[in-house]
Amino acid sequence: MQFKEKTICKNYVYKGKILSLRKDDVILPNGQPAIREMVEHSGGSAIYCEVDGKILLVKQYRYPYEKEIWEIPAGKLNIGESPEQTAIRELEEEGGIVAERVEKMFDVYPTPAYTNEVIRIYRAVGLTKSKQRLDDDEFLHSQWIDKEQVVKMIYDGEINDSKTIIAVLSSMK
Amino acid sequence: MQFKEKTICKNYVYKGKILSLRKDDVILPNGQPAIREMVEHSGGSAIYCEVDGKILLVKQYRYPYEKEIWEIPAGKLNIGESPEQTAIRELEEEGGIVAERVEKMFDVYPTPAYTNEVIRIYRAVGLTKSKQRLDDDEFLHSQWIDKEQVVKMIYDGEINDSKTIIAVLSSMK
């Protein structure tokens, strides 16, 4: 048996720069009407970069948590850009590294109850050094950290970002 | 050097049932004014349950993705409930299993650019069988699946939920 919720009407509560909010009228699988609140997001790319046992992480202030947190380089898709191009661009901008190409690791649904965002995680391949070039409203530090130390930071609760935990844990095989 | 964004004014665009949306006026580290859009969420608990090499998963329709997806049992915190109580309650409601207690695995930030949600992932300990009791608007299947198969589903892209991937990958040591 498959369950499905049928959209009766998409209602935009807010249309914003990075996200929009909908409060849709739906019909549940049991035929009852209901409301579903959800965020529309254009998606993002993240890039896992490991060289000689070290992982490239960025420490960035994240407004919702009111603090700086550790993450792999990532960002949202610009208009006209493929997810692979986004990953390569973010690695160069945030980490000062040029990747020849990227390999898909995962498509992640960060919190499926209320957002349609897909975070595409890539592995960087064929690296050469470039220069960090941040957006005007972007403030972050990048750092190469021993993989062993990164794993310890995950289990000690010092790294909490979902895409970063997934990329690192999956690279432990 | 530490970066910080200073809140000038919190502006609620929407106050909802499961989430609220803010469009705050802030001052960036360089002194410039900016707008930050963010979702306020009360947080959720998820529970990893493994017995004899099998993992308990639920398959649930997720409106934002317009399809059913596989996840470990999870849900948002009810008022007056501790995160541990939420995890134990969701396991019984969705999976029909009573856990004697839970052990914290991770606090996960699912998508830190625009939500303040913290997903607390627990491991279930001391299990006895009970009966599935779903909410009126909840429609899902629960299933015990071989761990080896679950790992394959993650790497084949059939499991995309961030908390589920983290719980399973971290249990492969």
Verbal overview:
- The model of chain A has no long low-confidence stretch (mean pLDDT 94).
- Chain A has 3 helices and 12 strands, in the order βββββββββαβββαα.
- The longest helix of chain A is centred in the middle third of the chain and has 13 residues, at 83-95.
- Chain A is elongated and about 55 Å long.
- Helices cover 18% and strands 46% of the residues of chain A.
- In chain A, strands 1, 2, 3 and 4 form a 4-stranded antiparallel β-sheet that branches. In chain A, strands 9-5-11-10 form a 4-stranded mixed β-sheet, with helices on both faces.
- The interface between A and B is large, with 68 and 68 residues.
Helix content of chain A: 10-25%
Could you say which overall geometry of chain A the principal axes of the C-alpha atoms support? elongated
Query: Most extensive chain contact?
Result: A-B, 68 and 68 residues
Give a count of the beta strands of chain A, DSSP E runs of length 2 or more. 12
> Strand percentage of chain A, roughly?
over 45%
Unreliable stretches of chain A: none
Q: Write the element-wise H/E pattern of chain A from the N-terminal end onward.
A: EEEEEEEEEHEEEHH
Classify the oligomer: homodimer
Instruction: Report the mean per-residue pLDDT of chain A as an integer.
Output: 94
For the biggest sheet of chain A, the summary is: 4 strands, antiparallel
Class computed from helices, strands and strand pairing of chain A? alpha+beta
